[in-house]
């Protein structure tokens, strides 16, 4: 029994000494996090998307497009549930391509239509280029600032085959 405890303690110490990135992602999995802003500067080509965002200050570098958004439910309290599709075109480090998403959104809006809080979950439905066959999920937390479409922070994992 004492030997098991010593081995367990050694494994724990070794794990704590490893960099967080080594613990966070098994091979083929890329952990991502960062920030998203509405593309007010025209950095992303206009492709007729519902909304266009620039990925800044993080692992995703490029353009994020909302292709469709459908209201699933809306309550008198201002709670809105929606779903839709989006895609990202750009880079993650030395990898580049397109990622495709289906998303589910939940948020609350005041009577004027300003978002009070919100967020969405984006399961990955595939990709092109270096992201061909990708799966995983990215989660966004909106940061309402009263300016319309809010900036957001994201975190997630992309599984490459």
How would you describe this protein?
- The structure is a single chain.
- The protein has 161 residues and is mostly beta strands.
- The protein has one domain: SO1590-like (AOC barrel-like, Beta Barrel), CATH 2.40.350.
- Helices cover 13% and strands 57% of the residues.
- The protein has an 8-stranded antiparallel β-barrel.
- The termini are far apart.
- The N terminus is likely disordered.
Topology readout:
Layout: H1 2-17, H2 20-24, E1 29-38, E2 51-56, E3 60-74, E4 79-92, E5 95-109, E6 115-129, E7 135-142, E8 152-159
Antiparallel strand pairs: 1-2, 1-8, 2-3, 3-4, 4-5, 5-6, 6-7, 7-8
Structure in a nutshell:
This protein is mainly beta. The chain is built from two helices and eight strands.
Name the helix and strand elements from N-terminus to C-terminus, one letter apiece: HHEEEEEEEE
Strand content: over 45%
How far the N terminus sits from the C terminus, by CA atoms, comes to 41 Å
Q: Write the CATH fold name.
A: AOC barrel-like
Assembly type of the chains comes to single chain
């Amino acid at each position: 029994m004492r030997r098991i405890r010593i081995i367990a303690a050694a494994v724990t110490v070794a794990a704590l000494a490893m960099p967080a990135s080594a613990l966070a992602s098994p091979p083929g999995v890329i952990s991502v996090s960062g920030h998203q802003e509405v593309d007010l500067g025209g950095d992303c080509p206009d492709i007729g998307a519902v909304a266009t965002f620039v990925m800044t200050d993080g692992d995703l570098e490029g353009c994020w497009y909302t292709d469709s958004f459908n209201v699933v439910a809306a309550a008198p309290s201002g709670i809105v549930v929606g779903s839709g599709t989006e895609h990202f075109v750009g880079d993650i480090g030395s990898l580049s391509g397109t990622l495709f998403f289906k998303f589910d959104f939940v948020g609350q809006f005041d009577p004027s239509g300003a978002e009070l809080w919100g967020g969405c979950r984006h399961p990955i439905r595939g990709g092109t280029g270096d992201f061909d066959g990708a799966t995983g999920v990215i989660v966004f937390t909106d940061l309402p600032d009263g300016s319309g479409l809010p900036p957001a922070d994201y975190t997630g994992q992309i599984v490459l085959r």
